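Attaching the record inline, Q. Sequence:
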Amino acid sequence: MSAGIQVTTREVATAHGISLRTAQRWAKTGKLNAVKNEAGRWAITLTADLDDFKPFQIDKATEVIEQGAMLRTSRPHLFRSVSSDGSTTYLTAAESCTCPAGIKGRRCYHVAAVRILLAARTSRRAA
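Structure, as predicted:
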């Protein structure tokens, strides 16, 4: 089952490899399923498969995306995740990660971040 999650224009920009301004323009013109919240910021609703993740993992996933710690690679479904200390990177896909938790077969927030980014890539409507 997939759940709806709200992301920012910054996360959509990261997923698409576009500028923040372009993501904001997409939201304004209806190319994204977006609404402005009380703070005047765009909130984009995505459908991502995050049922296996705890709320704190989803929060951490959105945080690392906003911090730019999920780096695109030449492969469209593979990302390089930067560790919290900034000295190590892990290869992460929608089902696996080379971080210590991933190697032990546990779900990590890096995988949740990739799922959010991949959902953001498919969020753009034809407009």
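Strands lie at 3-7, 34-36, 42-48, 70-72, 79-82, 89-92. Residues 109-121 form the longest helix (13 residues).

More tomorrow.
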